């Protein structure tokens, strides 16, 4: 009788779990159900993690902080963080904030921030500050990406040597046949706009620069977790492609975030986006 009651209780618990509304589900590249423990275990074997987010999705940002917190438990001072959302010419300001040399107000007044910085990225920065971790401002200053978008890579040659410190070394290697850059041109055409051939080049400048600063701040035995928009690491391209040009032996784990109406299975178009795909309901509250 006791065994029968236990079995019934297990069924009730299982049924209640199945009727819950999950905030997210994790899948592997093949679209098979996975979980956070498997993901963090693979993360801990990596040299570099590219965490591709949906910029306005709170689950993305919450899991970024959770992943960072759990990775720190093992890696301690060997954990390095970096983000697309901070530009390379703000690295000095960022370092001064992390070391306590300038106040929070001074940092806010002088640095460039995304509109959702306070809720979505500053918690990561403050985690680094509290635990004395390096945090890399990895992205190219947007003004130089704008130069490429308008005039192509050639326009970078005329910049001052000081300006070139904030980007990957020139000339920028570029493969227009990579899916990430071909898709960008196609999406523009499908949207009815005339997308310049320079737009993917501006994206490539960002990808190459982020890869450059990740590598520059990586040491063997460390774990570098980099936060970026999913488009900058999906399909194992973009930043990942440039990192492999620098060092083919890098062990890179990629994470992507997608939104679906139903998260009970991963849609075919989202398979193979990354090593791990975090599937989030489309109705999830947005941060902006």
Explain what the structure shows.
The chain is α/β, with parallel strands linked by helices and 288 residues long. It has one domain (38-115, 123-246, 276-281): Rossmann fold. Helices cover 43% and strands 16% of the residues. It contains 12 helices and 7 strands. The protein has helices at 2-19, 36-43, 58-75, 91-98, 104-110, 117-120, 122-130, 142-151, 161-164, 179-190, 198-216, 239-246, and strands at residues 25-28, 48-53, 79-87, 135-139, 223-229, 252-260, 276-281. Strands 1-7-6-2-5-3-4 form a 7-stranded mixed β-sheet. Helix 8 packs antiparallel against helix 11, helix 10 packs antiparallel against helix 11 and helix 11 (198-216) packs across helix 12. The protein starts with a helix and ends in a 7-residue tail after the last strand.
User: Helix proportion of residues, in percent?
Assistant: 40-55%
CATH fold name: Rossmann fold
Low-confidence stretches: 4-17
**Major sheet: arrangement of strands:** 1-7-6-2-5-3-4
CATH architecture: 3-Layer(aba) Sandwich
Briefly, what is this?
This protein is α/β, with parallel strands linked by helices and 288 residues long.
List the helices and strands and how they pair.
Blueprint: H1 2-19, E1 25-28, H2 36-43, E2 48-53, H3 58-75, E3 79-87, H4 91-98, H5 104-110, H6 117-120, H7 122-130, E4 135-139, H8 142-151, H9 161-164, H10 179-190, H11 198-216, E5 223-229, H12 239-246, E6 252-260, E7 276-281
Parallel strand pairs: 2-5, 2-6, 3-4, 3-5, 6-7
Antiparallel strand pairs: 1-7
Helix pairs in contact: 8-11, 10-11, 11-12
């Amino acid at each position: 009788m006791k065994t029968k009651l236990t079995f019934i209780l297990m069924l009730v618990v299982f049924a209640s779990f199945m009727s819950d509304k999950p905030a997210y589900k994790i899948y592997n590249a093949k679209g098979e159900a996975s979980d956070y423990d498997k993901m963090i275990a693979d993360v801990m074997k990596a040299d570099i993690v590219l965490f591709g987010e949906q910029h306005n999705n709170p689950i993305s940002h919450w899991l970024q902080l959770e992943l960072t917190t759990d990775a720190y438990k093992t890696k301690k001072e060997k954990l390095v963080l970096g983000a697309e959302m901070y530009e390379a010419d703000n690295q000095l300001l960022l370092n001064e904030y992390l070391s306590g040399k300038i106040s929070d107000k001074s940092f806010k007044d002088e640095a460039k921030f995304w509109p959702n910085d306070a809720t979505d990225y500053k918690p990561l920065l403050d985690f680094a500050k509290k635990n004395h971790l390096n945090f890399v401002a990895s992205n190219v200053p947007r003004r130089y990406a704008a130069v490429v978008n308008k005039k192509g890579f050639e326009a970078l040659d005329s910049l001052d040597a000081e300006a070139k410190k904030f980007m990957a070394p020139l000339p920028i290697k570029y493969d227009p046949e990579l899916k990430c850059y071909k898709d960008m041109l196609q999406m523009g055409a499908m949207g009815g706009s005339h997308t310049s051939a320079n737009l993917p080049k501006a994206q490539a400048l960002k990808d190459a620069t982020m890869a450059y600063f990740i590598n520059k701040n990586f040491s063997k035995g460390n774990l570098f977790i980099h936060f970026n928009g999913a488009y900058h690491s999906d399909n194992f391209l973009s930043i990942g492609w440039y990192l492999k040009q620098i060092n083919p032996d890098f062990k890179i784990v990629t994470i992507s975030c997608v939104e679906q109406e139903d998260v009970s299975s991963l849609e075919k178009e989202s398979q193979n986006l990354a090593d791990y795909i975090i599937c989030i309901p489309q109705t999830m509250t947005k941060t902006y």
